[in-house]
Amino acid sequence: MQRRHSRSQSGRRSEKGSSSNVEPWHVENNAHCNGGLRNAICSLGPRVKRKVWVGTLGTQTDSFGQKLRRDIDRRMSKEHESLPVWIPDDEFEKCYDEFCHQVLWPCLHYAIPDAPKTAQFYQSSAFKEYHAVNQRFADVIAANYKEGDVIFVNDYHLMLLPLLLRQHPKLPHNVPIGFFMHVAFPSSEIFKCLSMRQELLKGVLGADLVGFQTANFARHFRQTVSRILSYEALPKGIQVPDGPVPGPRPGSSTDGRFVDVGVYPMGIDVNQLQERKKDPEVAEWIRVLQERYAGMKMVVGRDKLDGIQGVRQKIQAFEMFLEKNPEWQGKAVLFQVALQTTEANEVGGGVSDLVAHINSRFSTLTYQPIVFLHTQDLTFSQYLALLTIADAFLVTSLREGMALRAHEFVECQEGRHRPLVLSEFTGSYSYSGFRSCIAINPWDARGTAAAIQQALTMSDDEALSRWEDLHNHVITQTAQAFATGFLSRCVRAHLEHIQPDVEDVSVLDAHRVLPRYKHSSKRMIFIDLEGTLYNRDVSRDALLENRFEPPEEALQVLDKLVGDRRNEVWLMSGLPRSMLQIIADRIPRLGIIAENGCFIKTLGSSQGSGEWLNMVANFNLTWKSSALEILNYFTERTPGAVVEEREASLVWRFWTDPTKPVDSPDRQWARWQAAEAQNHIFDRSVYSYAC
Ligand SMILES: O=P(O)(O)OC[C@H]1O[C@H](O[C@H]2O[C@H](CO)[C@@H](O)[C@H](O)[C@H]2O)[C@H](O)[C@@H](O)[C@@H]1O
């Protein structure tokens, strides 16, 4: 969705009655935007056969007549591959300015308003308009959907859209849908303040894949879903019971839909930025600025003035820096570029006062410590010139999804390599390459002031070495990498969700197989044990005592198959080899795969039973002790649960009365516990081994 301007502000549409050779309207590109998402999608080239952007117009539209709307629809589609969603001005304002910006945005960024306002904010009546806007998007998409399309929903303005699409009567029920959250996602303790928390979460879970900027945001989302909706939240995603699309999740114990949750860091379009830097206007402004600020150090920042991006904290820290380091007075300038927000008056007013106070405190005839500009006050080329010659870039966000302006700075510093001062609360900081910044806690003004001093006095060698790490990250984690990673995973997740998994392999068609079986001279047969050849669970006591009595009928079937010299027969099992030895002794020629492939007993012969090969001999199994500790904790809190330690794996089982329904409270409880245990194992970083 796009911020709206009144017509008089934007001048995007000529007034009625203007001369007929003047275009009645035109499209403007946002000059201050590197267009990450747009460029990322465009860069996929012919791999995306049909591409349609669905969004709002960045202007008020109530006064537009039907003819003008039709003209805009037609030209936007033909010339810009875009479909406008027409939203009445009042509905848009309530949805975007009120619900998105005053309720959702602060909540997603941990900014809970003070108590008296809380009730009003978190029960916002504007949620009705938010829903209506999401519905209008769904209707436009449904009316234009073509088979084979993948629907990619972006950001917090459209959290209800995935489910509205999934349930839309004009869309096939299994359309591929991806949802990406560009902004932060808070802990469940914050998200649960929203009165519409369930609708928002269920809305997002209409997608096949839900993506976040960082692993922390993804984990918060999974935990929030588990705590608020009581759905099973696994490290790889969410098991949604009774979803609108039927079909079991591969490997899951319950019916419903599985929604993948993943991490896809957004980046900038490096190629496009390099092109824009070549604009002669950039070189000209570099010259002008170098001349004007000769002998001074330039610290640059660009932020939204909404209280979340910490502009007030930044300016206070800059004041402290000048106060504590008087040698910099007259020699260091902060260029603060402000992005307009709807709340700009309130917060922006406060910031302007602060800037005025500092400027009056430290200014001289030839020096002004803070140059405070609004985006509309400078061109993108001027901004790129500033980034290119800056001595430091300062991001003090109190919370942020990523911080792509920091990536732009790094790219512009090729040849100069001056440091980045970055808030630890940004998504960018969570990536190892960005740990080479000068990290700050924006709440600590003293620390930020010291960081500015460190940046301005850093040796060239140190600055270069840090810049190389940052730059490596910027050119690897690009907008293109984001789009490719997200979309390919989305399509794969969708296919996995709609296609039957091995668990749902249809029953062997004896009419088809038997004639071939009879006439073939060599056959390889793989047979699963538990649940297939042996349609009962191994008893709890047997497992605990590590003994297993395979049923006689099953052994006879295996014996018979192995008896045919044309057959090579492999038995597959999750049980440990010690338990399967009884089968190996009885049918020596049988090949056995134990612990799901960790151990393999080769085919035997009349001379002997074959030998056990250890397939994990070179694996580091130290994860087992930490994982076992976690599983023991959950076992104690889950009646009927038991943990089995095998040679190379751990199994957590839950026994219950088989006559009880799958959604009985004790089974439900056990599933949550299992999911929580997996998440803990995942968090302790033992998961990669445990998998
Ligand atoms: O102003 P809004 O319409 O509410 O949109 C919010 C911001 O969206 C974009 O920023 C977010 O996505 C960026 C790229 O993934 C990420 O770097 C940033 O941290 C997110 O907040 C947009 O770039 C901003 O201009 C919007 O203000």
TrEMBL record:
Source taxon at top rank: Eukaryota
GO cellular component, one term: cytosol
GO biological process: trehalose biosynthetic process
Keyword Mitochondrion: no
Keyword Transferase included in the entry's annotation: yes
InterPro entries in UniProt: Glyco_trans_20 (IPR001830), HAD-like_sf (IPR036412), HAD_sf (IPR023214), Trehalose_PPase (IPR003337)
Keywords from the named record: Transferase
Pfam families: Glyco_transf_20, Trehalose_PPase
CDD domains xrefs: GT20_TPS (cd03788)
GO molecular function: alpha,alpha-trehalose-phosphate synthase (UDP-forming) activity; trehalose-phosphatase activity
Region (Disordered): 1-26
SUPFAM superfamilies named in the record: HAD-like, UDP-Glycosyltransferase/glycogen phosphorylase
Family to which the UniProt record says this protein belongs: In the N-terminal section; belongs to the glycosyltransferase 20 family.
Entry protein name: Glycosyltransferase family 20 protein
Organism: Schizophyllum amplum
Source organism phylogeny: Eukaryota, Fungi, Dikarya, Basidiomycota, Agaricomycotina
